Amino acid sequence: MPADPHGAVGRRIAYHRRVTRLTQQKLADAANIHVGTLRKIERGARGVGDGVLEALATAMRIDPAVLLADRAQTGSRVQQSLPALSAVIAAYDLPDDGPVRSLPLLRSAVRDTVNWRLAAQYVQISRHLPDLLAELLRARHTVPGHQRSEIAALLVSACRSADAVAYKFGAYDLSARLIELMRWAGPQADDNVLNTTIAYVRTETFFAAGTHKRGLHALEIAIDAAPPPDRAPAVVARGALHMRAAVLAGRAGVADAADTHLAEARRLGDQVPEGVYTGTAFGPSSVRIHEVSVAVSLGGDRVQRALKVARGWAPPQELPDERRSGFYIELARAQLWAGLPDGAFESLRNARRIAPQHTRDHLWVREDVAILRRLKRSDAESLSSFAKWCHAT
Q1: Average pLDDT along the chain, 393 residues, taken 10 residues at a time
Q2: Are the C-beta atoms of 320 and 311 separated by less than 8 Å?
Q3: Domain with 298 in it: what CATH number?
């Protein structure tokens, strides 16, 4: 990464170091760099490479993208990774030669990508996924036969994390190809629950195309084919399909179907504690967030229902950051439609605080902030600053 003559990255590192109550020496030790190097970075006297930036962010337990100077740098880093991802999956059946780590190390690496996806840490995903996908595809050809089903399952999880980046940054063709790779690998894992999860992810192609009714039909077929909900993973898989079906029905304006799927998701959600299962968050709180989403999609008198569901409630801390921030983004739209601009802006700020990357690149956020600026022309500098941050026009 080139040196930043204005020291913006250095100032951000210094700010977050103080927030986490670390001295320069302690942060340098934790990141395994010389304290003199950190001092120069913080005052803008030298640039910081990707490896050092990631080490500093890891030591402070934050996403490296938080330390980048602006949205353009974050987006640029992610965009630069997309051709590499595309090249890897284009030759999925002809992997290149190279090293393959042990199965426990591959499990750990994939687990990291799942955690980054749930925390909306897209820069981390884009930095590591091309090489990891290539390694998993090699492993499929080199590991003993009894390990291949697990490699296939790991490949599905890694593709899902890569897809989160492709979809979020508008690379819909790449997203669709990653989903097709998941559909190819899934049956090799010999896990019906995993195949149900793939059906859940596949609906992104329908969201991207705006074909919500067709997506709803595809999900209803997947629900019929899902394993019976006789154990927690199967309960979660089926419940997640109902949650997403409710959202698709809401986007399609089919209120009865949305209510039916929400009711079933609620029933299944009450059977398991809130948690992350096979990479998907599910439970009573997740269903409640989807109730808000469906109400916002249907609009009209449903907006008041969204506000009622959200009144006096906040997503618990144990929910993934992306889902928590998504709740506030949906709530902000309901508040804006209900004539509560101050509440809407506060919700957007909550979303930003929880998951900056997810919030900054969300289309609704930019649209809503642009509306807020028109409604509150004389208002504060904080709104203008927020608009500049997310590139709202």
Answers
A1: 58 85 90 90 83 82 69 66 92 92 96 93 89 96 93 97 92 95 95 93 94 96 94 95 97 96 97 93 96 93 90 92 95 94 93 88 89 73 80 73
A2: no
A3: 1.25.40
Within-domain flag for 391: yes
In this structure, the answer to whether residues 145 and 203 fall within a common structural domain is no
Domain span holding position 380: 320-393
Is the domain of 51 the same as that of 90? Answer: no
- CA distances (Å), origin 311, targets 5, 265, 292, 308: 46, 21, 11, 5
Per residue in 8-29, pLDDT tens?
A: 788 888 888 887 888 999 999 9
Q: Whose structure tokens read 């896990």?
A: 191
Q: Where are the alpha helices (DSSP H) in 43-147?
A: 50-60, 71-90, 103-118, 122-142
Whole-prediction pTM: 0.82
Asked whether residue 56 falls in the same domain as residue 86, the answer is no
Is residue 185 a part of any domain in this protein? no
The DSSP call for residue 70 is S
Residues 41 and 81 in one domain: no
- CB 202, CB 163: distance < 8 Å: no
Rounded CA Rg of the chain: 22
Tally of structural domains, the chain: 4
Residue 155 lies in a domain: yes
Location of structure tokens 């999900």 = 219
The CB density around residue 209, as the number of other CB atoms within 10 Å, is 12
Q: Same structural domain for residues 235 and 298?
A: yes
Q: Which amino acid is at 160?
A: R
The tokens describing 142, both together, are: 């080199």
Residues 259-314: tens digit of each pLDDT? 999 999 999 999 999 999 989 999 999 999 999 999 999 998 899 989 998 888 99
Task: Mark which of 284, 313, 342 sits at the end of a domain.
Answer: 313
Task: Assess contact for 166 and 82: CB atoms under 8 A.
Answer: yes
CB 352 within 8 A of CB 388: no
Residues 77, 143 within the same domain: yes
Q: Which of 208, 218, 276, 282 is nearest to 245 (CA)?
A: 218
Answer for the pair 285, 274: CB distance below 8 angstroms, yes or no.
Answer: yes
Residue 181 lies in a domain: no
Distance CA 192, CA 171 (A): 28
Structure tokens at 72: 């353009």
Same domain, 263 and 347: no
Distance of CA 63 to the CA centre of its chain: 13
